[in-house]
Design a protein that fits this description.
There is one protein chain. By secondary structure, this protein is α+β, with helices and mostly antiparallel strands. It has a single domain, classed as Trafficking protein particle complex subunit 3 (Muramoyl-pentapeptide Carboxypeptidase, domain 2), CATH 3.30.1380.20. The protein is 38% helix and 12% strand. The protein is globular and about 50 Å long. InterPro entries: NO_sig/Golgi_transp_ligand-bd, TRAPP-I_su5, TRAPP_component. It comes from Hebeloma cylindrosporum.
């Protein structure tokens, strides 16, 4: 399917915008903070989170409000320590990469634990479908909306999300309109691909349309070695 190549993101944060924070939704009590679970011995009705069976908590969900608050704090914290939009997106990508490595470990653990004959995906399309469905659902609670392949560049694939959950409560100032907070999601995808031996450079691009103003494209540019291996496996 044809795909319009995103415009390069070359703008930087202005001096005045560096001190401003990205708008976000937060609890009315500004002093509220999240902390690690207590190391004290839990009561009979409050089991320690570290003692939970990983396979029995796969359906558990995190509060959307808590996630939005935490992610907005991450954005603001990172924004104060970078020099421009490109640098901010790289930092978000790095943070997402760390999450992606753990997501892959968890998915592999659960797959091997629930299957008598676990297998490792060796085909590119199978891996992309896994990311589109299992990884997206594990992280965001829903599968992505589409997978596309670039007509012009055979080494490029796109994962489309029409309404990224992490973008819903982030309001980006006009002078930072090129910023895509989904660089965090791109880092997750890059970590999963690297972990499965499909090295690639993954970036996020804003591609809104009239039906989906928050539509985001995760652009995957594969390393040459991946395409060569795909040819041998045909």
């Amino acid at each position: 399917m044809a795909y319009a190549q995103p415009h390069p993101r070359l703008s930087v944060v202005s001096t005045s915008s560096q001190s401003s924070s990205i708008d976000h939704l937060s609890p009315t009590t500004s002093s509220t903070r999240f902390s690690l679970p207590s190391t004290n011995k839990p009561g009979p009705n409050r089991p320690n989170i570290y003692d939970r069976n990983l396979n029995k908590t796969r359906a558990s969900e995190v509060s959307a409000a808590a996630f939005a608050f935490l992610f907005s704090e991450i954005i603001q914290y990172t924004q104060k320590r970078v020099s421009g939009i490109n640098d901010l997106e790289r930092q978000l990508n790095t943070l997402g990469y760390r999450i992606g490595t753990r997501v892959l470990e968890l998915l592999v653990w659960r797959t091997e634990g629930s299957s008598k004959t676990p297998k490792r995906e060796t085909k590119l399309l199978s891996v992309l479908m896994m990311i589109h469905t299992k990884v997206w659902k594990a992280v965001f609670g829903k599968p992505a909306d589409a997978i596309e392949r670039s007509v012009e560049n055979p080494d490029e694939y796109m994962i489309i999300d029409n309404d990224p959950p992490i973008e819903r409560h982030i309001s980006v100032p006009r002078d930072m309109s090129q910023l895509s907070c989904s660089s965090f999601s791109a880092g997750i995808v890059e970590a999963v691909l690297d972990g499965l031996s499909f090295p690639a450079r993954v970036t996020a691009h804003n591609t809104p349309n009239s039906q989906s103003p928050n539509r985001t494209t995760i652009l995957i540019k594969l390393e040459k070695v991946v395409l060569e291996r795909e040819e041998l496996l045909k």
